[in-house]
Structures are given as C-alpha cells and as structure tokens.
Amino acid sequence: MWPFICQFIEKLFRETIEPAVRGAHTHLSTFSFTRVDVGQQPLRINGVKVYTENVDKRQIILDLQISFVGNCEIDLEIKRYFCRAGVQSIQIHGTMRVILEPLIGDMPLVGALSIFFLRKPLLEINWTGLTNLLDIPGLNGLSDTIILDIISNYLVLPNRITVPLVSEVQIAQLRFPIPKGVLRIHFIEAQDLQGKDTYLKGLVKGKSDPYGVIRVGNQIFQSKVIKENLSPKWNEVYEALVYEHPGQELEIELFDEDPDKDDFLGSLMLDLIEVEKERLLDEWFTLDEVLRGKLHLKLEWLTLMPDASNLEKVLTDIRADKDQANDGLSSSLLVLYLDSARNLPSNPLEFNPDVLKKAAIQKALKSGKKINSNPNPLVQMSVGHKAQESKIRYKTNEPVWEENFTFFVHNPKRQELEVEVKDEQHQCCLGNLRIPLSQLLACEDMTLNQRFQLSNSGPNSSLKMKLALRVLHLEKQERSPDHQHSAQVKRPSVSKEGRKISVRSQMSASPGTGDSSTAPSTPVMGGCDNKPGVEERAQPAEASPQGPRDLGRSSSSLQAGSTGSPSHVSVKEPTPSIASDISLPVATQELRQRLRQLENGTTLGQSPLGQIQLTVRHSSQRNKLVVVVHSCRNLIAFSEDGSDPYVRLYLLPDKRRSGRRKTHVSKKTLNPVFDQSFDFSVSLPDVQRRTLDVAVKNSGGFLSKDKGLLGKVLVGLASEELAKGWTQWYDLTEDGTRPHVVT
Q1: How far apart are CA 564 and CA 560, in angstroms?
Q2: Which of 317, 311, 512 has its CA nearest to residue 414?
Q3: 551-588 pLDDT, tens per residue?
Q4: Domain enclosing residue 692, as ranges
C-alpha cells in the first residue's frame, strides 16, 4: 500500500497544506512545495491491541503502535524571499487508535472508520535550510513543537479523522462524540513526604514545598504549592473529561518546588475503568515504592444524563441553587458542534457600521484592501467566564468549521451561551446570538440541531450548530460494610527531567479552596478557566508551545496541549561524551587489574564487584523508558577511605553526551543509596531492540587519580514484561557481560 499512501500524501501537501500556508500570512503568499517524496521506507505497525471489555458491541477498538522512520525529501520555496528549505528525515512514534463503528448487518459491515492519536506522538524532524526559513517575518517562532501542535489540532483526541463508509452514518456524531464521562478529582492532602530541601550545603535537612501535577489523557492540572510542609493539605477540586477510558489512566505526580529544578516526591497511577466501576473512591493511596508517603484522594465518576429529571438534586448537592455565581462545581456539560455559517456579510459597513473600528478602515485603505472583500471569519463562544474560539477560515462568507467544543456549566437554569462571529481581517463583528441554556432543558434529549439566525448581521446570515446539554450524575452504589474496592494502583511512570518547564507552560486551571468533605466554593474547573488574579506559574510565551493567549481555550485545545516536549533532532550531531567509559577501554583493564590485586590468592564471592538494584519500566502513556536507580551494595574500595560512587546510564547504541544520565555522587561509602529516576524518550518496539548500559563509577576529586570504573551491567530490554516493569538486583562485572540476576 505504501506507494499509494505516498500518492495521497503528495496530494495532501499540494492541494490542502500549500493553499492553507499561503492564506495564513501575507509573507507566505508565494509559498510552494517544489518536491514531495516521502521515501521508500514504509510506515511500520509494531503491535496491535484489541479491546474486548468495556466496549460497545457495535464497535471495534484497535490500538496500533505506529513507527515511521523515513528518509524524506520534502523541499519548499518562498519565491518572494528567495528562500529554500526542506526536510531530510522525519520520525513519528505513537499509539494510534482506530475505531470501526457502527457495525451493521449489511456490507461493508462497518459504517465508518475513525482514526486519532490518544496522546501526542513523538515527532523528530531533520531540517535543511531552517535558518533561512526563520528569517522570514511570521516564521521566527517556527519549531517542531508548533508543528506538533498543528498535527494535534487534527489528529489528537478529541479531534479525529473519520471516513464514512455508509451514507446513513451520522458523520458529526462519529467525528465528535459526547464524552464517556467526567472525572471529578478531589486533591485533598498528603502525609509523610520526603524532605528534599537542604541547607548549609546539605549538612542540615529541611522540609519540602510540595505541589501536585494531575493528568487525565492530555488534560493537565497543577495544584498550588504548600511551603515547607511534609503533610500538605491542598483541598482542591478538578474536573476532567474522559473520552476513551479503555487504556486511559489517572496519573498523579508530586514535586518539591525549587528555584532551579523541582525534586520528585512520588507518584501513583489509577486505571479509569476501575474508578468507573467503583463510582466513588475516598481513599489513602500509597505512593510508589521508590519514595515514602501517601496521598488522600476522593474520586467521583460522573455519568452524562440526557434528561433533567435529577438536575434539582445535582444543583442542591453542589450548592448552585443558593448562590448566584457562574463558577463552582459543575452540574452539567454543554457539548457544542460548530458546523458552518451561511451568507455572512462581505461589507460590514452595509449592515453594522458602528462595530467597524476607524483604525481598521484606515489600515485597510492604506494597504489597498477592499472593505467589501470576503471576510476571514472565526467564532468566539463563551459560557460564564469560560471562552473558546474556533479556527479562522480565510476569504469566505460561507465558512465550514466542523469543530467540537465543551463547556462545564455551573447552573444551566441561569447561564447562557454567547456566540459572536468575527472577521479576523477587519477586526469587526459579523453577527452574534445568545442562547439561554434553560432552552435546552425543554428540548428532546436536551439537544438542539438547527440553523440560528444571527443578530446585527446580514438579513439571511445564519450559523449552524448542534448543542447538547448533559447533566452530571453520580450513581452511588450500595456497598456491604466489608466491601473492598477493586481499583489497583499501577506502577507510575516517574519523570523528573524537564518536568518543570513542560508542565508549567500549560497550566490553565485555577486553585480552589474549601474543606475536603464539602464542595469548595471556588474549585478548579476542567482546565478551561483563565480568570484574572489566579496564580499561574507559566513560562514566558516565547518559550512555551502554548502562549498566554491560548490558555483560556477549549478543553479540546487543552487536550491538544503538550504533555512533555519531544526531543528534537539537532542539525549538528553532538560529540560523544569524553567521560564515557565506552570510549575508554582502559577503564575496564584497570578494573580487572584491581580485581586481581584484591584477590591476593583468596577466592572472591559470586559478586566480587558488588551489586546494583534497578527498576526498569516502559511508560506507554508517555512513550518513555523509566529507570530508577535504587542502591548498590558491597562495592569495592577505590582507596583507603572507600569509594565515592555514582551511576551512569546510556541507552545503547546512543552514546552521545545528550543521551547520558547520571546520579548524584555518594561520598565515602560502599553501599550507596540513590533512589533517583531517569527517563529516555523511546517507543516500546524500539526500546525492545536496545540495551541499557549501567556503569557504577568512582568520582574522586577534581584532577584526582582515583576516578575509574567500579563495575558495569548491560540490561537487555527485549522482555515482554517491560510494560509492567520489574525491580531486581544485578551483579556488577568488569565489562557488563554475563550479568547474573539475583532473585
């Protein structure tokens, strides 16, 4: 199939991407692809998972492990600036979900095919002529991260590509399904956390400044920081949409805030299928085995009801019947499908001259633009303080968007949906409308699907939308006194490297207050708020893949937000590390000589160089290999004072400096304890073909002769148990071969 897929990709570049780039910016009007060759190496599907439980009988759900490493030749040109650039190679690794639904009793048996990524794929692009491209106005912020965000807008949940195979299939319903449920997370408190802060160069142990990072799919929330407390109380609430719960997990990580790099305090992972079964969990959870501590959570699985029969009870439970605020716990969810608009006015002066700014008219006249040229329409929607915005459609008065948006609603009896169609080109309003949400309560299935007449617009201007209101209902199950919940804590994928930047660039949730046993008065709402005065620890816009302007966007754009910056291919290959013992075989010879000196005619034990304890696990959710270095025992002494050991890691065959990971140095000990976690960005199929190179080395002082190798182990990663992970002791040897696993 690959040659025919290549034909489709070339057509996509020339007929869809090229016109879109030309229309996006005046500086890009002469943009064109001069060559599109995706290469001879086809896309690989390294594994397929089929879900047989918790799925509808009229659908088939497949997860495909996608891997593409292609030597492409994609050349582009911008004639206006005499600029030429291109792409030499592309790598894409990720999990693609394919849904076949509905299954029908007639050929072709499948009504439609939907394709999307559950989370952002790992993308690496090797550019040529990138510096020329970045000199062009409007492109100076171009990066792999931005390109990945563009892909996410089309292919990462809740966005998807749907191919109808039968005309009767409701395409809008398939392309933008209503969420499976809402997870309400009460992030209450923790106890017995580790003190990570130290004073007087480590001589005095301090406390920690803990905060939590909560993930559900691509939705990310961050709690406030509690200063100098090992048993912090947060009492915050978050609400997250759950679209595809088979395979989705709730992941929580705790960190100690520091000025430079935040320290990892522990984590846990819960399967959402188990949470859905229990409906309500109010438990203390033990954090992972690496570090001590426990976490108190209250989790509520809220189902979406298409009728208002229990709305009054829900409003009473969340106290929405007593206050007049538009913020607080949500009683319902509004799902909005923005389809298209018709007969938008071409000349805003004809129907509404007051809304067109004088500055916009003067700017248009100076640039030679006609006021009556076709607009660049976009739609802004808001419910209460939450505002979201559609994509821009260029030079048309009959735009088609086909976009989906969701809003958490505090009280649908009192709130309304405000919609405004704007012209991005002339910075003016093309029409607006207001829809009281109480109107939906009286509709069948609380759903409206129609064309709405726009106010302050042309005589026949209309906007086609589908609105569905769903009441959030907590089904409380009767439990026997000795009932034990079935929710299992999974081993977490721990990551410390780069967490601070990647998390804080996306925070859009606001911390709430309130007692853990009652509904807070100002909780964090589903990641859509961006209220003034809210503490937001975000990095500068130019360093963030998602600037401040985008923080208040929809849950769909939040879910398209990055969960961690991918590692990009550098145009210049880094030089191999000078400190690498792989490039210094002398280190192995010195170690063997030292062993012979230690023997002195006596027989050494089975582990003459000592042992190291490691936890190895691959996190499919983040596409990373996670390695925890716990401790070593019975190391050899490098001098009379013992040794100053540290551990160095490589994921072979990568021997670059950027691929090296190191623990801290433990002074004057033969039994060091590290308990440090490291990760490598690599897919599961790829990592199973690689080897983990672990070396225990002696640090010594600056210019000391006591630097050297204490022992090595080469860990094969081809095991099928890698996804679950393992913790084991390994014998250290001179060159890492013949490792003996100690049970």
Answers
A1: 12
A2: 311
A3: 333 333 233 333 333 333 333 333 233 334 433 444 55
A4: 582-594+606-732
